[in-house]
Design brief:
Elements lengths: L9 H39 L13 H4 L3 E8 L5 E3 L9 E10 L4 E10 L19 E8 L23 H7 L5 E8 L23 H34 L1
Parallel strand pairs: 4-6
Antiparallel strand pairs: 1-3, 1-5, 2-3, 3-4, 5-6
Length: 245
């Protein structure tokens, strides 16, 4: 009975071993990202269902305030509004309406009032019913901290009043405001299905979490590559034995 030995060859091995190391590393990295994303989702669910509290003070730890449910009382500074460009909703293009909000204690926080369609962007064409209240009002919302923008997101252009991300420091400086909070608040809509403009944020979890699928894909690639490597050398061994006969 013949035994077909397994004799790795140089070039396939030099390609396969590093490739397997990289692919497996990517798979384990996706598992790590999965755990991080699950922690974010867990924190979101816990905080959005908790009773609303006062807006956190300046310098509060980011990990403790993100997604915190808050209730803020004060007045909108409507003349200092900005529109965040390129924000879709249900497949429609539009803007997020961000308005500085002066709290009763003197602090200023940016409020993302919600989404409006593109046709209502310019103030001159916007119905009066979409304007923020002039009197003191209480806003319920979720705290959001500023994260680094994506690689393909344009830089804000304060000189042209063009905004692509909510950056309190930039917006505050452009609008002549002092001591704007480093975080902002997403105003919550009255109910999850409410569609009254501006359409506020929802407490439903909408964090994308595809890391498990990505990990499975990378590990599948690794298994496939290993199988191909073994089968290739097994076939070469059989061919070598057959040639000797």
């Amino acid at each position: 009975m013949r035994h077909f030995g397994f004799q790795p060859t140089l070039w396939p091995t030099l390609f396969t071993v590093p490739a397997l190391v990289v692919i497996l590393a990517l798979g384990f990295w996706q598992l790590q990202r999965l755990q991080e994303k699950l922690a974010v989702i867990e924190a979101f669910e816990a905080r959005v269902t908790a009773p609303a509290v006062a807006p956190p003070p300046a310098g509060a730890p980011v990990a403790e305030i993100e997604f915190q449910r808050v209730s803020a009382t004060g007045r909108y500074l409507a003349d200092k509004e900005v529109l965040i460009l390129g924000r879709p909703f249900d497949g429609n293009t539009g803007f997020h309406v961000v308005v500085p909000f002066a709290l009763d204690d003197g602090r200023v926080i940016l409020i993302n009032r919600g989404w409006i369609p593109e046709k209502f962007g310019p103030l001159l064409r916007r119905p009066a019913r979409l304007a923020p209240p002039r009197d003191s009002v209480t806003v319920n919302g979720l705290v959001h901290v500023v994260r680094p923008k994506g690689r393909f997101v344009p830089d804000n252009e304060p000189g042209r009043d063009m905004w692509f991300t909510i950056t309190p420091s930039e917006i505050g400086a452009a609008k002549g405001l002092d001591a704007v909070a480093t975080y902002y608040i997403d105003r919550l809509r009255p109910t999850p299905r409410d569609r009254q403009l501006p359409i506020g944020a929802s407490t439903e979890v909408s964090v994308r979490n595809d890391h498990l699928q990505y990990a499975i894909t990378w590990f599948s690639f690794a298994i496939s590559l290993a199988v191909i490597y073994v089968l290739y050398h097994r076939r070469r061994s059989r061919e070598a034995v057959a040639a000797e006969d």
